[in-house]
Specification:
about 35 residues, mainly alpha
Length: about 35
């Protein structure tokens, strides 16, 4: 259920996710997030 919730959130605010990835470039979690987008 958590997965579905995260998916909806990403679809609602894709730009915010991308900007966040640019800010925390050094974190591996952000790299994974960028791959999903």
């Amino acid at each position: 259920m958590e997965n579905t919730n995260e998916n909806e959130d990403k679809n609602e605010h894709p730009r915010v996710e991308i900007e966040y990835c640019n800010i925390c470039n050094s974190k591996p979690q952000c790299l994974q997030l960028a791959t999903i987008i």
